[in-house]
Design a protein that fits this description.
The chain contains ten helices and eleven strands. With 327 residues, it is of the alpha+beta class. It has a single domain, classed as DD-peptidase/beta-lactamase superfamily (Beta-lactamase), CATH 3.40.710. Helix 2 packs parallel to helix 7.
Length: 327
């Protein structure tokens, strides 16, 4: 099968592409450093659950021990897998670690966006997806933003970098903070804010403040645009076990503010909150990405699912049921 930059995100090409992202788009390494690995004791349980459709990897931790681990579609324990919007939740944790002031004006650190739809927005608005911008998260028409992220071939008249694209986004008809409005550019802009506040590239900040301290076993990858700006809104790649470790890190720390906030009804089935780039779905803190990526964090259990659904959405109910069964 030939996979191109035009079709790698959808089926059937994504069955291969999500495990070979660095062969398709520019990436940088998120180092795990040289510190200790968070060891996962293996205590297999006879959990008789069926694999969900288009599964690539499934891991379950209970009280920090690995009780279930499955791989499919050629994936192995060492394979780095694209997590789509789970990357947003990675950034949410980083922003907390950096202790960025949520009241800071976005244009204080990114003055290039003065006069755009982000003028007047605060860091909090980016964190909670309440920035009032004229951008619709329509996956059928997402290729223009993907082109700016180096995820799709460039076309005449389309911005060539993430920052160039952000400049073109105008204001919405409501005010910042008035309503929940999910938009991936918010997260990529938040990544730029974090870089400038932290004084280092995003991959370096994630490595230093999150990936190494939580005890990741392997380096991760982060996709970048042609100018080197991180596409953290969807471009984080890691192993199944390290995604499970990320969930375990959240389970143990229970960072205040994750998943808090009000949502418009119907945005996500079972969702009751969104805050700091994390969902609350069916009572569990959840990192969620299109095409079937999920980390669900309960009081005792972490469930990590990696997939390559042919379409962006449509099988969420299957994953919700599986998480409930495994928890």
């Amino acid at each position: 099968m030939t996979v191109s930059l035009e079709d790698w995100q959808v089926g059937p090409g994504n069955r291969w592409a999500y495990q070979h992202v660095d062969e398709l788009v520019p990436t940088v390494v998120v180092s795990r450093g040289t510190g200790p690995v968070l060891e996962l004791a293996e205590r297999p349980l006879p959990l008789d659950v069926a694999d969900p459709p288009y599964l690539d990897g499934l891991a379950v931790l209970r009280d920090g021990a690995l009780v279930l681990e499955r791989y499919a579609n050629g994936m192995e324990a060492s394979t780095l897998h694209l997590s789509q919007s789970v990357g947003k939740s990675v950034l949410g944790l980083l922003v907390g670690a950096l202790r960025l002031d949520p009241a800071m004006a976005v244009t204080e650190l990114v003055p290039e966006l003065a006069g755009s739809g982000y003028d007047g927005a605060r860091v909090q608005h980016l964190l909670d997806m309440t920035a009032a911008i004229d951008f619709v998260e329509d996956y059928a028409d997402f290729w223009r933003y993907d082109a700016a992220c180096a995820w799709h071939p460039l076309a005449p008249g389309v911005p060539e970098t993430i920052l160039d694209f952000l400049r073109t986004i105008g204001p919405a008809a409501w005010a910042h903070g008035e309503r929940f409005h999910y938009a991936t550019p918010n997260t990529d802009l938040l990544g730029i804010v974090a870089e400038r506040a932290g004084g280092a590239p995003l991959a370096e900040l994630i490595a230093r403040e999150l990936w190494a301290p939580m005890g990741a076993e392997r380096d991760a990858l982060l996709t970048v645009d042609h100018a080197g700006t991180a596409a953290i809104g969807g471009g984080f790649c890691a192993t199944l076990r390290d995604y499970a470790r990320l969930g375990e890190h959240v389970r143990r720390s229970r960072t205040p503010g994750l998943g808090e906030g009000e949502l418009a009804r119907g945005v996500q089935p079972g969702a009751t909150g969104y805050g700091r780039q994390w969902w609350t779905i069916d009572g569990r803190l959840t990192a969620w990405g299109i095409h079937g990526q999920r980390i669900a964090v309960g009081e005792r259990t972490v469930v990590a699912i990696l997939s390559s659904w042919p379409e962006a959405e449509g099988l969420e109910a299957v994953h919700r049921a599986l998480v409930a069964e495994l928890s």
